[in-house]
């Protein structure tokens, strides 16, 4: 039964640590900004995983609350600095971030782009279904975003009077 509970389990410390780390995360996020937990780039994803790992270490008593708080604050500062540098340097932005990739142009599936992105046609079709696309003629574009999400831009019907704003595809690569 020791794998369920032992008398020396730091349950009270863990609960107190939860409350403190919750407040620390809120305060640091308010200082650095919501961008700190956005999913725009690969480093954003790595940052989120690292923060989760640090919180886990704190709550399971693998590291102290002070050590974990400093680690989280350090990662948040690095994220803040990188986002500032990305705004200043297009080269750094291109180096860190993947540009979105066009997977469908209108009703045409771009098979080379699917292959490059390692996305199967069945996965693309599943995303079209999720977006309630009834036929390929409704599709304006399908984009693999830099976050790994797939966006489907489509019209409700082929006869729709809605005008598509081409700015929505600015920065999207047409070829890998």
TrEMBL record:
<keyword id="KW-1133">Transmembrane helix</keyword>
<protein>
    <submittedName>
        <fullName>DUF421 domain-containing protein</fullName>
    </submittedName>
</protein>
<comment type="similarity">
    <text>Belongs to the UPF0702 family.</text>
</comment>
<dbReference type="InterPro" id="IPR007353">
    <property type="entry name" value="DUF421"/>
</dbReference>
<feature type="transmembrane region" description="Helical">
    <location>
        <begin position="12"/>
        <end position="33"/>
    </location>
</feature>
<feature type="domain" description="YetF C-terminal">
    <location>
        <begin position="88"/>
        <end position="159"/>
    </location>
</feature>
<dbReference type="Pfam" id="PF04239">
    <property type="entry name" value="DUF421"/>
</dbReference>
<feature type="transmembrane region" description="Helical">
    <location>
        <begin position="65"/>
        <end position="85"/>
    </location>
</feature>
<feature type="transmembrane region" description="Helical">
    <location>
        <begin position="40"/>
        <end position="59"/>
    </location>
</feature>
<keyword id="KW-1003">Cell membrane</keyword>
<dbReference type="InterPro" id="IPR023090">
    <property type="entry name" value="UPF0702_alpha/beta_dom_sf"/>
</dbReference>
<keyword id="KW-0472">Membrane</keyword>
<keyword id="KW-0812">Transmembrane</keyword>
